DNA sequence: GATTTCCTGGACTTGCAGGTCCATTTTTCC
DNA sequence: GGAAAAATGGACCTGCAAGTCCAGGAAATC
């Protein structure tokens, strides 16, 4: 871990992170132990601490980063091309599908709750995720506006922030209740209200 | 605990719940121990298990219920009288103020993450909170509609669900980032977009 | 092919948080 | 005022999960 990783080392490290992500999703951060992760990934205590010398927190952080990247990836290519209303609906469907499939398994939320506000690393990961996510949505709003589908007066950043908050809340409520009603409502209502400002529509 | 609590017992039990809520807010559920709670509330291990025989989970559940009640209380009287646009803005201010004051201390979210989906009790508390909250918002939308401030075509439940999701997400993002931008955006944008449908306005 | 670095396995230690127990004190209620 | 029930204090136990350590097996590098 001090020098560079050999290909074999990289593979093992990757296996640990991915396996840990699975275990954490299934058991929850509060319950999952290093031994669960060790068992799932077919590794040993020695390896765990070889690749993550700072222990569990460091591993959780790596998993958090992995999951954060996944969140955005799973929304592509839709999130990157929000330039027509149809594209927005396709994106909406992708988001809903992704989280419905995931079920009530919270990765980032509870992961963050565990690593906590104490560590600056965890916070940085979430902030960065939110920033990228919102920027993509904002880009979508901007292209609608520039394409004449929205008036020039629309506040791009506020709109993107509000939509992102709706998604986050919808997911959160879904994790708690098991129902995706709110996630759907947030997206449908948000897009509908936005579209109501389209000068091209009556 | 088997029979009825004496006044003294009730007081102690209440002290434990409130003190536990404080400790959990300050330290986070993952870190706080029964001993922290014991120290803060000036009680003993014996008392903790006297009033909560099923141990930590039962105590956490009681705290969750306490916090859930608090959430709605702190929004009153505004949440109960959302019949004019001005009333909506006052409510918006109350919500933002409440959560800004609370800072990045998540009670319910991480509390729920700890007790987890395993226990049906925790889930029930959150579901009930969401139900009540949304019903209050829906009542507000309904009175706007009945007062002629919104067209009859407005979907009351979807609107309420979307607004609630926005708040939840805004709070969640605030807990992670420390910024209330998204909470404000969700409320401001939501109310503004709703108001844009007011036939009494241009 | 030798040496050095990396990788792997798993036995072991350790600290601590949840939980138990019971003796003592205080309240209740007749 | 005395017995029964409730409340309290704190010493003690126990299990477990994080973290340590080192010895032996693979890979790279020359």
Word description of this protein:
The structure is a homodimer of 202-residue chains. The first copy, chain A, is built from 9 helices and no strands. Helix content of chain A is 71%, strand content 0%. The mean pLDDT of chain A is 90. Chain A is mostly helical and 202 residues long. At the A-B interface, helix 6, helix 7, helix 8 and helix 9 of A face helix 6, helix 7, helix 8 and helix 9 of B. Chain B binds a DNA duplex (30 and 30 nucleotides) through helix 1 and helix 3.
Layout of SSEs?
2 copies of one chain form a homodimer.
Chain A: H1 7-27, H2 34-41, H3 45-51, H4 56-73, H5 85-102, H6 108-115, H7 120-146, H8 156-177, H9 181-195
Helix pairs in contact in A: 1-2, 1-4, 4-6, 4-7, 5-9, 7-8, 8-9
The structure holds a DNA duplex (30 and 30 nucleotides).
Summarize, please:
The structure is a homodimer of 202-residue chains. Chain A has 9 helices and no strands.
| H/I helix tally of chain A | 9
Number of strands of chain A: 0
**Computed structural class of chain A:** mainly alpha
Oligomer: homodimer
- Average pLDDT figure of chain A: 90
Helix content of chain A: over 70%
| Poorly predicted ranges of chain A | none
Largest interface: A-B, 49 and 48 residues
| Straight-line N-to-C gap of chain A | 63 Å
Secondary-structure element sequence of chain A? HHHHHHHHH
Gyration radius over CA of chain A: 20 Å
């Amino acid at each position: 871990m001090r020098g560079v990783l050999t290909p074999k080392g990289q593979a093992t490290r990757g296996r640990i992170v991915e396996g840990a992500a699975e275990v954490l999703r299934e058991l929850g951060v509060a319950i999952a132990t290093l031994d669960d992760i060790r068992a799932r990934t077919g590794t040993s205590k020695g390896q765990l601490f070889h690749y993550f010398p700072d222990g569990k927190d460091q591993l959780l952080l790596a998993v958090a980063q992995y999951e954060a990247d996944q969140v955005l990836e799973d929304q592509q290519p839709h999130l990157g091309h929000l330039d027509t209303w149809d594209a927005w609906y396709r994106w909406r469907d992708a988001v809903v599908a992704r989280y419905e499939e995931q079920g009530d398994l919270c990765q980032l939320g509870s992961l963050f709750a565990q690593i906590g506000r104490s560590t600056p690393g965890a916070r940085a990961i979430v902030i960065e995720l939110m920033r990228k996510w919102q920027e993509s949505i904002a880009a979508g709003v901007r292209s609608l506006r520039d394409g004449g589908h929205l008036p020039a007066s629309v506040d791009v950043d506020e709109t993107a922030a509000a939509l992102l908050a709706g998604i986050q809340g919808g997911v959160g409520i879904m994790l708690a209740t098991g129902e995706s009603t709110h996630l759907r409502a947030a997206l449908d209502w948000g897009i509908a209200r936005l579209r109501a400002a389209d000068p091209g529509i009556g």
